[in-house]
Protein 1
Amino acid sequence: MTDTLHLLADKLGIAKSFKAVGLKKNLYEVSDDILKFFCKTYGYNADSETDIKLSLEKLAAASWKKMLPEIVILHHDNMSFTAVLSDKQLNSEIKIYISAQENNNKQEVDFELVKTGEMKSFARETLNKVVIKLPQIFAYGYYKLEMCTVDANALSVMAVVPDKCYSAEAVSNGKLWGYALQLYSLKSKHNWGVGDFTDLQKFVKMCGKIGAAIIGLNPLNVLFHDYPENASPYSSMSRLFLNPIYIDVEKVLGFDKCMADTLLDEIAAAKEGELIDYTKVYNLKIKALKKLFAYLKTQPSYMQKLADFIKLKGYDLETLATFQAIYHEQKQKGNCGWMNWDKNLRNPQSKAVSDFKKAFADEIMFFEFLQFEADRQLQEVYKTVQKEGLKVGLYRDLPVGVGKDSAELWTDKYVFIDDAGAGAPPDAFFPFGQKWCVGAFNPFELKKRAYEPFLKILRANMAYAGALRIDHVMGLMRLFMIPDNKNGGTYIHYNFEDMLDLLALESHLHKCTIVGESIGNVPEGFLDKLKAKGIYSISVVWAERWNDGNGDFKMPEAYPENAFVSVGTHDIPPLKMWWFGYDIELSRSLNLITDDEKYQQYKVREADRYKLLSALDFNKTWPSDNLRKGNYVYGEGYPEGIEEALHTLLSQTSSKVVLLQPEDIFGVDKRQNFPGTDVDKYPNWRRRLPINVEDMESGEAYKRNIAAVKKFR
């Protein structure tokens, strides 16, 4: 590797080396081939030494090309930004105007200009970097910034940001509890085979009765209409809109018992079994919704509300619905995936797409209707949250990326890194890393757009939420990217400070507490940055152990204070599965481990079980009417009351929020998701809870576990 290539990579934020995750933190050197690929992706050729030197010159000149950057981010204690002015402009009258982003009522503002002494000559012109100091303090928010000089005007976005993210007073000052819920998993007497927004509404009312403050949800984003079995909520078609599978069809205007009677057999079939049949459920709902849409088109009042929604959501909704309609039409022709469409259809601005909109206007409006109805029903859930007085409310989840075959990439592919996808770095199981086929923002293009694509996604997922979980929050700083046609990859870096500042601003504007999922390869000092920014962390019981997670379980007072804590997550075996080691057996049955590894893991698990029992004993958290009866070596069964004991321990911790998983309360012994496996190996994201929502409150396990967590909260 050449020093100049390393220098170019450094300046572009492309990692030359990285440490692997896990106990063996091997240092990986990134190949020249990978470095050159990402340099070229950013628009800087690195094929030869001459190319690299020219790219370094081009990069050095870039910061001098514009009078104002695309966005200036200001704090109340430092209302200043950098500008570039020619000698002629510097010696002329300069005016600065600022207006609110939503109007053009600009006002001229006073400022102080400070020369930095930095100068650069281009052709016959000398440019100067100066600092503009604004004596006036502006409220948090976005503004239009205009600088006018003798021969040029420049426009920019000005963002005035808080130092920390918003935190609900109840979270900051209290010790709260709630649930971590997979909405699709909810069973009920009324739903059509998958948990829906009415089920969620019922769950909210249950929480209101018992003092739960928060309901954590899986991502609710829209998935692929033509592939219902692609059920991972983390592989969205668009993070801007909702999954219509969560619509309660019976709550749509025009549905009546007569329609229900005609669908009784199909509804019953869709509700059968322990696992969700997404094709059966989704297609049944779409069939009914199409009938309802045909009826609703005759209802002027409803259609006016739909038209208002379409206008409000604008271009983003129009392109999503158009994409879905084209995708469906092209699939009938065997053209799966938008990159396999006719070239003209791959461009949303093309005449071919314009002609399609005219020819398929009704189909496009149907997809817009689905979004309207999903949004309307989620809004009803939010109203119930307010009525029931949940202190935080819905805690939504924002995925780190989006499927490469998604509407987001089709709509605006240039803001994403081309020919590469996000993934995971190498480890013992995946020597070349993991390709997730997830699209990721190009950091240079993102800044050029004043971060608007990132902001839109934040806003969409903060809607109706009191808290937002940022999946793989390290992605605000860096993502591991793997080229599509190469082995190996590297980390690309984002403008971390900008991303944090804008996240803080959006959290205040939406009054939304921010939580960062940071399990994995966490850069040194990263968690301190999050804490300083007021972002809460996530933790699980299995991580709160000494000796890098291999020693004794920590006492409650040793848990992190600024954290949302739970027994596990959707990616971790529920308590009963962990106890019996069914997850180890599952790994062996899928040939992910050998017999020797299985034996060793069982030995470790037996020791871990005893460590857990010891922690519960020491903290005296066993229910008084159900004390521990033995050591429960394999073959002696499952300790009655262990869920209560563990939830009592969590309630004693210093952590701000404790989240209960229904899977633990109701003794589920199978996991919701097995990372690294596809549906052909394991039924990820398909497992229903063993009890109906309507029956939860009367269940003994429910009552006892709620009492356990409320002992200290």
Note: Residues 145 and 156 are 5 Å apart (CA to CA).
Protein 2
Amino acid sequence: MSTVANVWRLLKAARVFARHDALLLPEYLAVLPAPARAGMAVLRLGAPAHPVESEQGRLADALTELGPSYIKLGQFLSTRPDIIGGKRAFELKTLQDRLPPFPQPEAEDTVARELGQPVAALFAEFGPAVAAASIAQVHKARLRDGRAVAVKILRPDVEKRFAADMESFTFAASLMERLSAEGRRLRPIDAVAMLRQSMDLELDLRMEAAALSEMAENSKDDAGLRFPAIHWNLTARRVLTTEWIDATPMADVAALKASGHDLVKLADTLVQSFLRHAIRDGFFHADMHQGNLMVDRAGQIVPLDYGIMGRLIPRERLFLAEILHGFIVRDYERVAQVHFDAGYVPRSEDPAIFAQALRAIGEPIMGLAAEDVSMSRLLTQLFDTTAQFNMTTQPQLLLLQKTMVVVEGVARTLNPHFNMWKAGETVVSGWIAETLGPLGTLKQGAQSALALGKAALALPDILDEARRASEMLSAMAKSGGLRLDEETAMALAREQRRHSRWRDAAIIAGGLALVALALAVLW
């Protein structure tokens, strides 16, 4: 997409934000440079006044009006208070991914096109949509053998809309990094790339089926957890068919009590399962709000909707486990050293001062009642503190921290006296003992030996490539090498300037409004 098109799309989005009075919080507007304030005023021309009581929902309303891509962007930014600020991130917690369903005939046409047969030939019954979101909607259906299934179907043309909006988001992120050193530290380009990758997976329902299958396999020996069965023969890129789950929503605490479920046990199982997935498997469900959690008759937790998943490489899993364990045992020097060992905090910072800052986070929570101790809040404070020590933003850890906030909140609705530390210590300490203990050391040694063996096998090919490269360079040197004379360089420069004129003109034309929008995001 051209620069002009990106600028135009962002200007239209900025206009929607301005109409909802959602570009900037009032306390930030006053400190903007005069040109940015002027751009904001232009964008708000003719915008209706919003009543005071709707202030908290303005940003969410604007994102909903802008459509699926912006709803997903809002959900993603709710995990990044470092970019948009704590208040804005809190506002986005209210953003609901709900849209009106698309028509039944379109849904049935998609199923027939993707699966190669008419709906009547595949299902004995195919009901109307029971849930509709920005990406897809779900229908309850019944197979010819009588089994109930859930059929998830992508919205028509949703891929094209996302592709265009992602190009605009990338353009805006590039602008932020060019304008601001703080923007470069926050790595918005990487954040958009992470969002794009997540959306690419969500827009292929075969990938969601694979995520469900992988998580079910990882958890096959875990008590208290089950996963819907996948009907692979009724699954394609735009259609996913799974077992229909008849269970009680975890949000309905009264119904769970009435059914005789042990709420304290459910809270422990939920949190311990999440930590196992993150630390043991490095693969976790990153959208575990109450609407995606059910409890079956046997008291097993059934997670739904595997479109948003998180992954942690082994180094990140060890980092997470060690910092949590370090806070549990109050070893702040070790927590500090883990940050330096992982390369997250620059070596130019003082480990002793960093450990002192970590102590300021950890000590206030010691001795508090269980219901007052929050592991997710500790991680939030930790990432806020590390920013002061120039820690480069780690989007994957922020996604995990956001999910932990949600999981911990759900656990506390089940058990108001829930002790996150007690529930998590068994998982964290056990994994550390297994990974860093004698058996873990032997396993790592075996893996290192295997890696060295593979490298040794590849060595002849590497040496052969190096020899050929050396011969080529030597031949070029003998023939005078590759030269770029002054006339050629000037011609290249003129061509570059000619192709840049439209881009520069577009940036100037959208300058005031784009700066206002970028500054709004940065604030």
Note: Strands lie at 123-132, 136-143, 148-154, 239-243, 248-249, 283-285, 293-295, 301-303, 309-311.
Protein 3
Amino acid sequence: MSTLQKLPIGIQEFEKLRREGCFYADKTKQIYQMVSQGCYYFLSRPRRFGKSLLMSTIHALFNGKKELFDGTIGQRLAIADQPDITWQVHPVLHLDLNTQKYDCIEALENVLNETLTEWEQLYGRNPVEIGFGRRFQGVIKRAYEKTGHRVVILVDEYDKPMLQAIGNDSLQQEFRDTLKGFYGALKSMDGCIKFALLTGVTKFGKVSVFSDLNNLNDISMDAEYWDICGLTEQEIEASFPAEIDVLAKANGMTYDECVETLRHRYDGYHFEENSPGVYNPFSVLNTLNKKKFGSYWFETGTPTYLVTLLQLHHYNLEAMAKTQTSADVLNSIDGHDTNPIPVIFQSGYLTIKSYNSRFGTYLLDFPNKEVEEGFLKFLIPFYTRINAVESAFQIQCFVDDVENGRTEQFINRLKSFFAGTPYELVKDLENHYQNVLFIISRLMGFYTQAEYHTSEGRIDMVIKTQKFCYVMEFKLDGTAEEALEQITDKNYTLPFEMDGQQIIRIGMNFSSQTRNIERYILG
């Protein structure tokens, strides 16, 4: 067996990664294409997808660190074979907005002031320059004049302040105004700039920080750059045969079973309609390192702004999971928009599953099991009074009850999910009930078989196990009898009658007064 590689766990700095002999997926062919064909770029990718490493690689390139690319240290990278690469040293201005909590305007102003002060110590300051935009202009101009070479500007996680202010319109507007003035320097100092790249999770558009920066090339959904971050299946299979073999043995799998499990859990991101899937690099590398499958990306923290958006607009979760939308919607976020889908898509919790070229529409869904299961479990405490630790146990008990035909226990557990419905969700009880049922159904579907539709209509919930098939219909402020009658009248059980399981029909009624299941009957 070949020697296992040193994996770059927790390392986002290109030079450190290379000097310590860690694995590096060579993205320098795409980097060369960027720097040789354009000047101003924007790239959106989910968190922990390799954006910071990409920035660090570009930083090293424009610092002229040839030895990190040409095979002197580690494998020779693709960009070293380009005849017109000069390894010229350029002044690099690198701003990282990812390290701060932005709960007030002063937090952003402090980061910008500290960064500008650091740059001004290198290139000087003119005291007549007042304001972040003017100071930034001055730094760019003097860096160019002092070195004789045009400036490279890298901004990591440009959108962090605005994302943390979702739900606080006044603070978000303050962040937008401040950053708009700051980034305006890129356009006014065009003659002094060699290259600029801004990255983030999302792209805020319309009256946003980019509204005056009309020369910015958004490559987030370009076919040429679909794999500039993340890992492809080809990269994984070519780079990690030994690591996959060890992982397979540690988990009692064959090599092929292990590859399929990696694909099922971590593949499935599509950043362009015709591209192959991209694997989440953070989860893949941690899985290979720990020799254990886990929800590593999800466990690093899901931003609460996603749930804030969903609840603020009373969004239907089932509609979210099978959304059809256009490129115009996906490409830009308006802070005042009521549609949470662009933020959820750009944050990596939904991805492109198919594309209708005739109408220019995309079908979105969860990219893989890690994201779907993790996101649904994350939602439970926000839609019920059950905490995250207890919810995992409750789902396990749900599965055990339905597999053994314990209908009364199953329904009592269902009641516990609705007990104490948050007051802020009372205004749209029917949507809230549908969302809780959707979460439970999808989570149950990881361990049982869940279905939703028939030719006669939409069934509220169907759960199938080896022995039983539960067909459930719910009413709000109606009667359990009406719910059960609908199952019969619309032949909801017909598609399942030849499957061999015992069919259990359940009609339930929710009460808007008690905000819970008022009564149920079996048929």
Note: The chain is about 45% helix and 15% strand.
Protein 4
Amino acid sequence: MSDTVDNKKFSAQRVDSDRRVLELLSQTFGSISAASTEIINLEAILNLPKGTEHFVADLHGEDEAFRHILKNASGNIKRKVNEIYANTMRESEIAELCSLIYYPEQKLELIRAEEPDLENFYNITLHRLVRVLQSVSSKYTRSKVRKNLPHEYAYIIEELLHEAPEAENKQLYYNRIVETIISCEQADDFIIALCNVIQRLSIDRLHILGDIYDRGHGAHIIMDTLLDYNSFDMQWGNHDILWMGAAAGNECNIANVLRIALRYGDLATLEEGYGINLLPLATFAMDVYKNDSCSIFMPKTDPDCPIHSKKTLELLSKMHKAIAIIQFKLEGSMIDRHPEWKMDDRKLLSVLSPDRKSISLNGVSYPMLDSNFPTIDPADPYKLSPEEDQLMQRLQRSFEISDKLKRHINVFYDHGGMFNIVNSNLMFHASVPLNADGSLKEVDLLGKKYKGKELLNNIGMLVRAAINHDTPAHIRDYARDYYWYLWCGPDSPLFDKHAMTTFERYFIADKSTHVEEKGFYYTLRDREDVVDHILDEFGVTGPHRHIINGHVPVKVGKGENPVKANGKLMVIDGGFAKAYHHTTGIAGYTLVFHSRGFVLVQHEPFSSTEEAIRNCTDIVSTNTLVEMSRNRMLVRDTDKGRELQSQINELRELLYAYRHGMIKPRR
């Protein structure tokens, strides 16, 4: 049905053509009054302010910072509290109240131990929290607010929300509710419930633009958080696809996942999160490299926060080298299996000198920083030794049987994809492959050429084919291999660089060999005409349309601007991971899209959850207005609004059918 139906211009012919839809609709709205009531409800919703959307990218396992940003709504909750109480509360009191909202259970435990007059504290705090909740819930319908309330307290919270304590006729009623909550010893539970609802309603929808995994220690905790989250979507990043492939059994991906974890000396997600058994790798490494210092494979740990003993670091470095060599072997075999990927230049084990002390790249000989490779056969350098082969089988099995890993990876399939378009915003992790002139680049996929939206759509279907058992075996095998290409292939929209120079970074001192030349998307995305061309390709319309992506950290400290192409493209990788803080000069971005426009929130490093609870510290954030509107954006201006308008049109047509006897009311 058309979204622009004239409410007064229906016809018997039109009703007849839409009869099947209208008959189905009449099962839910079986009378004139029921259909009319729903129209009134939907028309009212269209005139509410749009909900607040938050965009984040490249979290890289930084669970504490991520969860804090969810809890404080990227500073929005503190802004609300300041608006309400700036003239009646001291700054320290506002910080205490915000800390309570973010971490109610832990904060109450401290308060109970230190507060001399708990009853007074409960009374004041309950009144304050209700007022904050009234503010954050004001842009939603009562029905939506009700759905976010805990069942056991829903009725009482609703009563408090919709009654003003200063109203003469209801003052005693309101105050008595609060007093009874305290006298029944329900104040703690009630405060926790109020705080959780404030958190939930402060963010209407969360968009994650890729790379939840690797580098930080808490990717599994981020995934647990998302399992309990209401409304979110995610775009696959190259680090996410690496883990998705590992869970699907791709050996190259498994080796890369292990190598990265060992490179940063953090095995928490693997061992504590998913129960991956690393003992076989440790045993193998200690045996094969027992007389090797493996010094260039020493983990990159924070020197100010040593969590490993010298002995442990030595073991990790041996494990690191062992899996790196296995990775390079597996990747060489993968490249041989897929000549169409044209990645022969990544087969570097076969261009080592006979004594392995130098390597020849593009006609230049470079000394090797390490030449001890006891498991490499010069006659067949990419063949795994029997021990390596057995080890990979055990590691592959460990990934495949992890129920929690499977549950978390399913979230990527259920909520994710290569791209998404919401409210005129095109979101993807890294790039859309381009040619030098800004035109869309054709990329080979199973013998066919695709570009732009069609390319990303077909990659998305191929990724899912790897886990669909009704897919033909040869397609499923190719799809499983393709996870690795998406991780590091030159034409991968999740990577889009000429090469991933992992080998060179380990073994060659000359940094000119470490360069990874970016695809043309990264050099052309400053141009408004190029961005417009991509937006047109994906069918993104509207006067305020944008591309939002991450992947490449924005070097704010060096003056780089995350807003490009005259405001039409925003790069929101600000470096959540500690490993990137020195590169970006900050500790992450959140892009906030509320009814007034876009605000880019720049975050400073987060100290710790414990510090935030005990000392009321918060992430220091700086807001930058990106695009603001004089008029508030309403629900009717959003994708959801267009859906609701379509439903209204259908219901009006149903009313016409009822009133003219074309469809009989059911009640």
Note: The mean pLDDT is 91.
